[in-house]
Design a protein that fits this description.
- The structure holds two protein chains of two kinds.
- Chain A is mainly alpha-helical.
- Chain A has 20 helices and three strands.
- Chain A folds into two domains: 462 residues, no CATH class; 36 residues.
- Chain A has a two-stranded antiparallel ribbon with strand order 1-2.
- Classes of the chains: A mainly alpha, B mainly alpha.
- β3 of chain A pairs antiparallel with β1 of chain B.
Chain lengths: 531, 83
Amino acid sequence: MTSSFIHPALIMIVGACLLPLVRGPFRKPYLFLIPLLTFIDVVYLSQHPGTYGVFQFMNWELTFGRVDRLSMIFGFIMALMAIIGTIYGMHVEDEWQHIAAWFYVAGSLGAIYAADYITLFLFWEMMAFASTFLIWARKDEEALAAGYRYILVHTFGGVVLLLGFVLRYQATGDLSFGQLNVSSPELYTWLIMIGLMLNAAVPPLHSWLPDAYSKATAVGAVFMCAFTTKTAVYTLIRSCSGFEVLIYLGVIMAIYGIIYAVMENDVRKLLGWEIVSQVGYMVAGIGIGTSLAINGAAAHAFAHILYKGLLFMAAGAILTSTGRQKLTQLGGLYKKMPATMVFMLIGGLAVSGLPLMSGFISKSMIITAAFESHLLWVGFALILVSAGTFLAAGLRLPYLIFFGKNNCSKETWEKAQDPSWNMQLGMAIGGFLCIFLGCYTPFLYSMLPNTDVTFHPYNAYHLSETLQVMAFTGFGFFMLRNYVLPQNTISLDMDWFYRMGGRAFLWTVKNPLQWFDTALGKFTKSLLLTV
Amino acid sequence: MIINLIDYLRDRLQTVIYCCYGVMAFIVIWSMSVDTSHAHTWAEKMIPGFWSLFGLGSCAVVIMVARWYGKSGIQAREDYYDK
């Protein structure tokens, strides 16, 4: 490797491997130090763009370190989230969770700096396998099953991606990971896009997300909500910008996610559906493909990691203290968890795009890009989803957890309290950054990949548009709130097909196939005895 | 402090609701004085308080579609997959 290049993923991997050796009073400082060193490395690299870590492996040239404006912004936010997530999870004694989380972050950083498909695939799979352990770490039956579903789905996605880039290599002899020819896509273009789309949770390949994120540990979900989908968004920006089908898929995704979020009873599943919806904005932006739209997708991914991380941290705090994550088992908790309530409100308002919050300066960029590209239906659909987002995450969620009817059992109520100092510190950092980004736009805008466009979110018309939509969405919620009360139900989704398909397969193997096998065995045995 | 503030506001819920109505009215009236040169369609320029109507309509549509979709068989018992 180039002497001045230390791959940020390497720091996380070495840090994870050495973690079991660091015990006692050194553990917590060490937990803070490794992500901090990674972050410093990422910041250092961002000052020195270029290509690093080039290796010859068999006949292929592998490039581990492509540092440009696009990889810089994603690397920056991933490393920052690794610090926040680790601080939030500092109280966790189970070292395997920390190890899995750090390998997961390393996978994400490795994929972001990779410049060829083999390196990308290596880190892509590292992400999938490491994150599975964050689900299994919860150690109950539901988490075990969800983890298996998660890894099976992601293995399928990995195989599709592998098939895509192998076919491309066969056809072009090129393994470099860059913009694909989306104007005349080949079979391999579609396969690569589908492989990447699965990790971005684009319907119909999305069901793994709310399923897995709601079953992971409290800390695991905080990491998971940040890395998988946003790394996929990065890879889609890198390879599929301007692919028109992504506009349609992105809008469908945004609407689909918000409809399910409004129906949902499980807090973390609701937030999972919100991710599907918000990543829909980014996917639509990638499909539009203009400089402003790509900047919007990158900015929204950056802002999204922070506010969604904050919401998952608040949800995790509720789960940790009460042991409950269903809206039908919560309510009135502002008296018991006031700090958590404030952080969840900040996250909810940030995701809703309230002025002076991070969501306002990022999602409006994608909507403006849609209107400027004369895609009026896209712009209006995404504003409709903005109203739905405020309804689901900014109003319904905090109302039902903190203010609405108290559905807590006596035991839940007694246990409810604000979480430990480190969890509150993680949330405070996340909350501060949500407000800071919204108030000081140059911080985020100066990092965006395309420098040929500018965007000014704070003009009177945009403020008036946003405030009207939000105020009247609030009024709508006030009038119709009885129609969105939670129920003890689950919402059937695309996972029905593989869950029921799996059962049908198992039944076929256990019954007719087993019967046939037994009968064949008996027949052969009797035939041999006769002879 | 936050708890006391929320309790204070809950005790005066009707006043809070009237204040919210006042804020909504202010936003709509203010929006009519805003320069619409940044508007994307004629509807935004011609219909006063267009985005207020759009926000209210969007909220109602999302709630009603979610409710209809859920009732159409998508919302199932929690033990659906356990059987």
